[in-house]
């Protein structure tokens, strides 16, 4: 199988996050093509996945799909053993329904609270329309967790396509300090602490694509997810490893944690690790040795 995926900015593109999670969380090998939104590079990338005009887009053994729900259903059909939907028929029906509602609804929330994984606005004031969307989402999450979530922390216990689709919404609750029940808060924190999500966010920080118009003119506080280990890039040092934990190539770039120096093969490998060292299994193996 040959799978390819086209995505945009990791910090701001909620649909790109959904597309990436469909492959990352279910362990499907995929070659990811990434381009910064609103650039000629992005236009060129999209042209390679014609006839799509948006991301995510995928090529599955050469067949082009666009729209995250279409990609999800095709992957589910190709990989029935991956259990991308709940196995119980009642749970599966609810999961499909709430995913479809997410896919087509909640326009006020989407428009007022764009995904922004760099910011947290404690003083954001949601409109009545946004609060109505928030209440409905909390209702959906609470019902799923109460009725179907006994065997794990996700909506239906184990991770499913429904969680993929609500991941960017969980980040919006966090970024804009939206009202949330105890059940919703626990579910949001599950997303923020998830290793794959932390990898995605760290890569976005390392890319450092700051898009005009996405940041609000409001005070911002520290991101509410798990506090990462304090790391910083350094120009020189004697690293504890001679080869990059990701590529295996000789090290050329360095970071420091608590006086210890580690090496990487390029600036991006270093910077994504600086952003959240514990998100990266291969690095933590070296760090803990």
From TrEMBL:
InterPro entries: Glutathione-S-Trfase_C_sf (IPR036282), Glutathione_S-Trfase_N (IPR004045), Thioredoxin-like_sf (IPR036249)
Entry superkingdom: Bacteria
UniProt KW keywords: Transferase
GO MF term (any one): maleylacetoacetate isomerase activity
Short name of one Pfam family: GST_N_2
Annotated GO biological process: glutathione metabolic process; L-phenylalanine catabolic process
GST N-terminal domain boundaries: 1-83
Name of the featured protein: Glutathione S-transferase
Organism of this sequence: Paramylibacter kogurei
């Amino acid at each position: 199988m040959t799978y390819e995926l086209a995505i945009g900015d990791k910090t701001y593109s909620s649909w790109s996050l959904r597309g990436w999670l469909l492959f990352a969380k279910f362990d499907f090998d995929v070659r990811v093509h990434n381009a910064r939104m609103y650039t000629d590079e992005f236009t060129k990338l999209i042209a390679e996945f014609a006839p799509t005009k948006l991301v995510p887009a995928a090529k599955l053994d050469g067949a082009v799909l666009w729209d995250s729900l279409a990609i999800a259903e095709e992957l589910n059909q190709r990989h029935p053993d991956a259990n991308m939907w709940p196995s119980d028929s009642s749970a599966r029906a609810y999961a499909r329904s709430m995913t479809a509602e997410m896919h087509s609804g909640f326009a006020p929330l989407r428009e007022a609270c764009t995904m922004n994984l760099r910011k947290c606005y404690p003083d954001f004031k949601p409109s009545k329309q946004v609060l109505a969307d928030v209440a409905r989402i909390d209702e959906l999450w609470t019902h799923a967790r109460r009725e179907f979530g006994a065997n794990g922390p996700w909506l239906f216990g184990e991770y499913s396509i429904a969680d993929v689709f609500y991941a960017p919404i969980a980040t919006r609750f966090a970024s804009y300090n939206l009202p949330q029940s105890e059940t919703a808060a626990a579910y949001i924190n599950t997303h923020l602490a998830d290793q794959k999500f932390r990898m995605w966010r760290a890569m976005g920080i390392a890319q450092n694509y700051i898009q005009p118009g996405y940041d609000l003119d409001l005070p911002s506080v520290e991101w509410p997810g798990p506090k990462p280990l304090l790391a910083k890039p350094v120009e020189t040092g004697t690293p504890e490893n001679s080869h990059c934990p990701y590529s295996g190539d000789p090290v050329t770039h360095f970071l420091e944690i608590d006086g210890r120096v580690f090496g990487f093969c390029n600036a991006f490998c270093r910077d994504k690790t600086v952003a959240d060292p514990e998100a990266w299994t291969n690095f933590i193996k070296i760090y803990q040795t």
